[in-house]
Amino acid sequence: MRKFNITVNGVAYEVEVEEVTDGGAPAAPKAQAAPAPVQSVPKSAAPKAQMVAGGVQVKSPMPGTVLDIKVQPGAKVKKGDCLMVLEAMKMENDIPAPQDGTVAQILAAKGATVDSGAVLVVLN
Known about the structure:
mainly beta
């Protein structure tokens, strides 16, 4: 048996896995209680900054990690321009500007883990 720590929806579990070789059946499983959650490592979250009032909020479509920020506050953007790159499930996803505007505020830092629906950028 080998032990692994697995995190599901932010809750860490310790599990045991038995390797089967040569197509043989594993030994009869032992009766076990449901795995107990173990202490999970806290995620690094996006900085908590005050949001600019009256802007268009660009939200994260999925949970992930901010790989790159392509714009700076004050930059003029056109609809479809890439604002930042978000990694989710080992894929890089461009976060586009939903409309023309000016970047008023960036609320996510490079390397930060963000949840689905988190505000990443505010456009005016």
